Amino acid sequence: MNMNIDCVICFQKQALRALKDIEDIKVKEKVLRSVMEMLLTQEWTKTPPELAGEVYRVVKGISGIEDPYKELKIKSNEIILDMYDDLKEESLNSEDPIQHALRLAVAGNIMDFGASEDFDVNETLERVVNADFAYDYSDNLKEKLGTAESILYFADNSGEIVLDKLLLELILKKYDIKKITFVVKAGPIINDATMNDINQITISDLPNITFKTIGNALYHESPSRTSEEVKKWIYEHDIVIAKGQGNYEGFSIYKHLKKIFFLLMAKCPIVARDLDVEEQSFIIYI
User: Fold this and answer.
1) Sequence spans of domains, the chain
2) Which of 2, 12, 172, 246 is the most buried (most CB within 10 A)?
């Protein structure tokens, strides 16, 4: 999914939100001017995640802040970890534990500081259980899980990642999955999950799981979403689960494979329009 012209304004808002702890108006002005100058030099046919990486490269370069959401990410994980046992019990006692955990994982996508800092995760978790999904291909996913041996899982945000752990724990309990490759960001950008989150939530305790990272304009040591290396990962696994809007924007070019399941909330009007759904819709799409 290529960038839309409306993304230009959103990028500037994201840059400003990342400077929330800086009071110096001159620094904020310099960042915003530099972001605008950068956008003028970029090809607007790139995906939004590619350009978001460039935006945060500018923010970091001028402000010196490497991880503006560090404390919020830690707190987000703590909030959902405190709910983990109750949500696990709720899922196991439901009519369809996998279906229930899938819905919780989708609801977790509300925890996206790139889209908004004003959300109610408890209300969203309560609402998702009985909500009508704009797309619900969960039956297709469960059918494929019945024969699959490997899963490639692209995580999205801190906090949300705890619900990904719950989903994978229940999948491993029900299905004979021999290999899970769990992918996070190589370094901080917005509140996206990184290896720090992996360590905090101890998802490495799950069996048969290994970890990879993807990079961006800030972190070149790991392959980008658009690289041949990541394309190879996709083809090597039986099922791909891609969480959130950024992964939808980055991987929707592979929809024809019918093996990538997109789990997200359509929080952005551009993503909602591309999917032909209402904003704030819950989605399990292939």
Assistant:
1) 5-63, 79-285
2) 246
pLDDT averaged over every residue in the chain: 92
Given a contact cutoff of 8 angstroms between Cβ atoms, the answer to whether 277 and 129 are in contact is no
Q: CA-CA distance, 63 to 157, in Å (whole number)?
A: 23
Banded model confidence at residue 255, pLDDT cuts 50, 70, 90: confident
User: Concatenated DSSP letters for 176-207?
Assistant: ---EEEEEEESS-STTB-BHHHHHHHTGGGST
Question: Exposed, middle or buried: residue 118 (CB in 10 Å: 0-12, 13-18, 19+)?
Answer: exposed
Distance CA 226, CA 255 (A): 14
- C-beta atoms surrounding 107 within 10 Å: 24
- CA–CA dist 270, 120 (Å, integer): 22
Give the pLDDT of residue 119: 77
Asked if 68 and 56 count as a contact pair (C-beta separation under 8 A), the reply is no
What superfamily in CATH does domain 79-285 come from? Uncharacterised protein PF01937, DUF89, domain 3 (3.40.50.10880)
Q: Whole-model pTM?
A: 0.91
Cβ-contact 241, 151 below 8 angstroms: yes
pLDDT above 80 (res 1) = no
- Three-class SS of residue 283? strand
Region 73-88: what's the mean pLDDT? 96
